[in-house]
């Protein structure tokens, strides 16, 4: 497996995405930057996502037989133990991260996704298979319905906005809500998982939420084109197009706010992807 990646920080804070690989496996994590988390955890979101990513890679590198769910659960538990006694890790806004993993095992590729990151399987003779976790999007849509029709900036809007935030926090890592890597290793059991025969793959792309914006909501291209561009020009070209679109107002037009950290990794199984980055 040949591995190439690119990342682009989206704001003034340290890049909260993490990407890396070991022989036969790759991971990409998208840290959740929640305002005010610095007062809850002195380490910060970037520290959490980078520590969790490195811990997960180390486990995958040591043991290619443990299930991806078990590897993630053990890694969450280990990182939680590193700051359990110094930080309020049980607080709903303490550092957290989405997770994506691709691992080659024998004649198959195993995939895990927790949260709104993407693994896009680049199939040899079929359209791409997109693996993501839509539960947070669904929960957010339900909770923010209370804001529809209320003018932004009004007192009523601000009051409802706080209620929406509280409702979202209450459904994080709860049955009927959505799941993310944080302090509870049981969240790993809620991950979306699957496998595909390696012979059916030419590769796999892992994208953070900020990179996935090129398809949704910016609609600059569809997933087959994303993979074609990565193979021809490398993942940095997708990031360049995202930033170019945001520079002319794509983010505000689509209502997604400030530019986000954007990271892409491509696991090349046939040796045809560009290595320029």
Key attributes of the depicted protein:
Phosphatase 2c, domain 1, alpha+beta, 2 domains, 277 residues, five-stranded antiparallel sheet, 10 strands
Distance between the termini: 18 Å
What amount of the residues lies in strands?
15-25%
CATH superfamily of the largest domain: PPM-type phosphatase domain
State the CATH topology of the largest domain. Phosphatase 2c, domain 1
Structural class, from helix and strand content? alpha+beta
Description of the structure:
By secondary structure, the protein is of the alpha+beta class. It has 2 domains: 2-132 and 179-268, PPM-type phosphatase domain (Phosphatase 2c, domain 1); 134-177, no CATH class. The chain is built from 8 helices and 10 strands. It has helices at residues 45-62, 68-83, 135-144, 155-170, 209-212, 223-233, 235-247, 250-254; strands spanning 2-8, 17-22, 25-31, 97-105, 108-114, 118-123, 129-132, 192-197, 201-207, 262-268. A 5-stranded antiparallel β-sheet has the order 1-10-9-6-7. A 5-stranded antiparallel β-sheet has the order 2-3-4-5-8, with helices on one face. Strand 6 and strand 7 (129-132) form a beta hairpin. Helix 3 (135-144) runs antiparallel to helix 4 (155-170). The longest helix has 18 residues, at 45-62. The radius of gyration is 19 Å and the shape is globular.
């Amino acid at each position: 497996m040949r591995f190439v990646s690119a990342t682009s920080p989206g704001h003034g804070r340290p890049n909260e995405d993490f990407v890396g690989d070991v022989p036969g496996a790759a991971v990409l994590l998208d840290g959740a930057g929640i305002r005010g988390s610095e007062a809850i955890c002195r380490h910060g979101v970037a520290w959490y996502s980078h520590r969790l990513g490195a811990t997960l890679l180390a486990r995958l590198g040591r043991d290619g037989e443990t299930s991806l769910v078990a590897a993630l659960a053990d890694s969450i538990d280990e990182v939680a133990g590193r700051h359990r006694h110094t930080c309020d890790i049980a607080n709903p806004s303490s550092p957290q991260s989405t997770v994506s993993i691709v691992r080659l095992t024998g004649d198959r590729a195993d995939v895990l996704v927790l949260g709104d990151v993407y693994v896009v399987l680049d199939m040899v003779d079929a359209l791409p298979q997109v693996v993501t976790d839509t539960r947070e999007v669904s929960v957010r849509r339900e909770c923010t319905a209370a804001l529809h029709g209320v003018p932004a900036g009004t007192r009523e809007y601000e009051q409802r906005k706080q209620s929406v935030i509280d409702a979202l926090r209450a459904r994080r890592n709860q049955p009927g809500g959505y799941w993310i890597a944080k302090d509870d290793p049981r969240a790993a059991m809620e991950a979306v998982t699957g496998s595909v025969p390696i012979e059916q793959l030419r590769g796999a792309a892992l994208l953070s939420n900020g990179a996935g914006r090129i398809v949704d909501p910016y609609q600059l291209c569809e997933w087959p084109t994303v993979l074609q561009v990565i193979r021809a020009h490398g993942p940095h070209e997708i990031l360049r197009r995202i930033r170019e679109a945001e520079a002319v107002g794509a983010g505000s037009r689509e209502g997604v706010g400030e530019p986000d950290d954007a990271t892409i990794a491509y696991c090349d199984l046939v040796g045809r992807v560009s290595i320029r980055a």
